Amino acid sequence: MISAAVVGASGYAGCELLRLLATHPGVKVVGTYDIRNAGQPVSSVHPNLRGIVDLIITEPDYGKMAKAVDVVFTATPHGVAMKFVPRLLEGGAKVVDLSADYRFDDPKVFELYYIKHESPNLKAVYGLPELYRVEVSKARLVANPGCYPTAAILSLAPLLKDKLIDPERIIIDAKSGTSGVGAGLSEVTHHPTCGASMRAYAATTHRHAPEIAQELGKLAGRPVKLGFTPHLIPIVRGILSTAHVFLKKPMTKGALLGIYRDFYRNECFVRVLDDLPQVNFVVGSNYCDIGLEPDTKSNRLVVVSVIDNLIKGASGQAIQNMNLMLGLDEGKGLEASALRP
Amino acid sequence: MISAAVVGASGYAGCELLRLLATHPGVKVVGTYDIRNAGQPVSSVHPNLRGIVDLIITEPDYGKMAKAVDVVFTATPHGVAMKFVPRLLEGGAKVVDLSADYRFDDPKVFELYYIKHESPNLKAVYGLPELYRVEVSKARLVANPGCYPTAAILSLAPLLKDKLIDPERIIIDAKSGTSGVGAGLSEVTHHPTCGASMRAYAATTHRHAPEIAQELGKLAGRPVKLGFTPHLIPIVRGILSTAHVFLKKPMTKGALLGIYRDFYRNECFVRVLDDLPQVNFVVGSNYCDIGLEPDTKSNRLVVVSVIDNLIKGASGQAIQNMNLMLGLDEGKGLEASALRP
Amino acid sequence: MISAAVVGASGYAGCELLRLLATHPGVKVVGTYDIRNAGQPVSSVHPNLRGIVDLIITEPDYGKMAKAVDVVFTATPHGVAMKFVPRLLEGGAKVVDLSADYRFDDPKVFELYYIKHESPNLKAVYGLPELYRVEVSKARLVANPGCYPTAAILSLAPLLKDKLIDPERIIIDAKSGTSGVGAGLSEVTHHPTCGASMRAYAATTHRHAPEIAQELGKLAGRPVKLGFTPHLIPIVRGILSTAHVFLKKPMTKGALLGIYRDFYRNECFVRVLDDLPQVNFVVGSNYCDIGLEPDTKSNRLVVVSVIDNLIKGASGQAIQNMNLMLGLDEGKGLEASALRP
Amino acid sequence: MISAAVVGASGYAGCELLRLLATHPGVKVVGTYDIRNAGQPVSSVHPNLRGIVDLIITEPDYGKMAKAVDVVFTATPHGVAMKFVPRLLEGGAKVVDLSADYRFDDPKVFELYYIKHESPNLKAVYGLPELYRVEVSKARLVANPGCYPTAAILSLAPLLKDKLIDPERIIIDAKSGTSGVGAGLSEVTHHPTCGASMRAYAATTHRHAPEIAQELGKLAGRPVKLGFTPHLIPIVRGILSTAHVFLKKPMTKGALLGIYRDFYRNECFVRVLDDLPQVNFVVGSNYCDIGLEPDTKSNRLVVVSVIDNLIKGASGQAIQNMNLMLGLDEGKGLEASALRP
User: Is C147 noted as a catalytic residue in this protein?
Assistant: First the structure.
């Protein structure tokens, strides 16, 4: 039995980690840590876990933690994990970091969009198993991808890998539920003003844009020009990512679907659909569903992908990575299908 | 490995049965039946199950079915199961009927609220394990309770059993999400008119009222006078049931919680909370959460219970019943905790 | 042209007052006041009013205000208006107070549920025009009713006036949208946890209970026993109030509707429907729609009423009161019908 | 007093016409027509209008209608108005057609996306007053724009007019509430499956694409290449249209806002905001709010516009057109500001 710790247990990603690990047959969570709510039982912060997770949230002691557990999940705000992940690794633990701290190949890009990096020389594997499975299984530190990047990269990987689209003309228009904003109160998630509304935000400046561009660029073998605009939609969970791209030469929908199905043929968490996916096909599960529609009047192609932002977009993918890092079945603990309706 | 069949696979309860049984380690669904969508794969009707349930929906042959499987779940509209359940039992299968057909001790009450009964002499056990665990484990036919009755009965059982409240003055004001209406299109679930609205319906005539009254009466050892009014709320899943009752003598909240905790001390799916529960404490799980608040200025007591109408209120409870009938662990396959947020 | 001031311009009731008065042909808002957002234009706080209300929010000077305007609307938190309303009246202005400060005949009841009163001897007219039209038209200070009380009192007034129901057995189970919580951020209106949930709150202790009881008692000519339990529902606007009451003797739906229609025959904002009303019949309007359903098997009667909590439940009713106080047509400025869908 | 008739009174656009015209001081609706619901009062179909619109819906007699009224609104499904609009015009009535039948300069384009045209030689003015005010005021037949086109065209008109963007690279990713689907029941608006979901639809084939392209092309003085993808979002009302376009040369946000403000300086229903608009800034009103954000790292520009799809996107704009056609104040009857919250 593998032992695990969750740092950042008060947040939504922390809650999802605990919820999913509670039914994972090979892992036991032995410590839940957070500065907020220290001293309280998990279930007083997350009432869904009453009777299921009975641990007390405590202030972290990273030295002890690293010795006590096989793997640590760090679900902390950006800029926090980089302060203590080196100690965890030195102490012998493997780490899956759900924050942005180690997602960038070039720390300068991180610093441009976030803050000064405190452990810039520490290298992680970018934890998108569909692209980096082998590397993840050997890694001691995995940088778990952002929610928008997971949906966006998976939706375009087959096209860029095969150089089928113009890498200079990629538009991703994404829509997220409100859980992506997090557990902290905020004007943008105040129900009276958001519950029957929608908005674009950070329309040209979102921090996930350089993360998406980094990975699309590696797939394409050259830098890409990416426009990324996210929107906030009044549902709780789910991301729908709409990619508007341009084929270098006309292709039929059938041919395109064939390429996608071939690319993802061994993947347990990517489903290529005949039609466009809807968010509720995947909410509650670790799946990414993808569909596409080429414009028969032009070379434009629309690719739509959907994920549960807290599962495949965060904690489910973190567990998928952990399974790989620890030699378990990749899908272990992630068998739940989406709720319907 | 137990083999199971699901009749009524196109509906929401059927979908939930398939979703939950897909991860049940002791049961294999070998047949999915429905008149609607016959010939189609389950996953084309329920896209959340793509890659998970690959069976084809077929028109039922009850004779063959009864011989081929250990247990049949009948998730059909009211008045349908009674036509073929006798054949299933004769063929040797055990049956969990999710419809109302066998819920009433007195078929005349059924006929008053539904239609003429075609197998009125066939007796089932009312499948609320918290009240009838022993009977369920011996039963060959279990009548799975309605969604509102599950929430309502569990919220008042300890009080009526101990004769603590006036059985002539019970008001239950319940609120349900729209999935309770079912998969068929309907004016009341048309998003433009229901998505930002709410309504009471069948305010004094709902079919679940006599079902609740039957069970409360048995608990009280005498007939009760029950007022039951349901409401439709624009969320997808979840029931919140608010019982307004009157204590025979003043009691503190602490004393009342003690009685509830004692009554439910061995239950794995009932949680008695210090505060009032919210629907999202349980949506996605088989839990029923209960909280209460006595009025310090009068003898009124408010008891609030919440369930996921499709899990504890339908398919989860059906699996709980099946586990008991087949000698499996009662909670097997029902380990999922609620989604949060 | 009548001149008006709005104190508490940053809140939702303040916003609604400004929105509605912007198209009132007989009134001009000349001052918008608040401590929060002082110095900012109204439209930067309430973007819906951009180009419509161009006033700057300023810190209030009550002496000047009283001299400058005919009527002041005080849409401040409870316990605030009582500090300055005496000065406004002395200065010559008429006042419609949207807070609870002057709603209680007995200041001791106010103090039991709110805080110590600072002007307990100042008497206001309870501003429910359907009950106190003559008094309101002569008043200089009107206490605008609470949102739940407006819906609840209108739903039962005809029954209590005619002594048709048992005044000892009144249950009101009410459901409100989230705008009732106000513009301030709060855990209970955080979209991720409330957007797909519902909850009861203050199940036996809500401050609107004594307000409702006061008015029902006056209608009945004797004290009533009232149980009041509110719920929070994930829609933005609207209250649905379900009254469970007991007829002294059996009556048909037709007879009951006749009594209601007679009672409200001259009312421009109360509609008695043949069927039960839905919240979206009234959201966006000043209407209160009422429907009822007697239980043919017992003497229970269910009466359902719906209002827009910010219009008939707050700012619309305040303008209705103002129209009466100033001798204008009662419905002036309140002609908008509900949005559909 | 101008007299008007509404054909298609059972639908949502018909309802909005009646709701808005009910408070229009210069117009009286004298006839409401539909094949559905003929014989019923308007208020039994649209309960929000009870006590406000007391007309009976009748089957249309176009000859009589044309003689009896000054103006007819045709809010019928596509392909219906073209059957009788010629008769209405011959009879002397002016017509605002809310369907797509007369929106296309070239009937062949209409026929490509809809059906065979039955009066292809009849020419209408495209009723977007911000672009065709003079023409509308002289017109006898106005083709009211589609909802998506209204938002999309207004968001890009200043840029194309001044040739500031590449007309070959226009992507419009639009999001609509469910009322756009209409009053007819449909799988896509079934609350259980749409209420917590979202989807793209007709991703490259939507009928509004050629309508948008026609008008953008006229503004640009040359054909444009347009990619248009709509999405369905679980709110009732509102469209948010996100345009991804490419500036020919870098421009600051300030310069761009200046161009928009200059272009729309005399418009009463277009507001250019400093920041990006949210849908609830306009729902309930006839406004179109526009905001933009240029990408400082590339030449991409994001322009976001929001409208109420049933008001500025349908019935409000129809009344705005009627006002112009009949010489009334353009904004008469359309003074309502958006609801907030």
Answer: yes
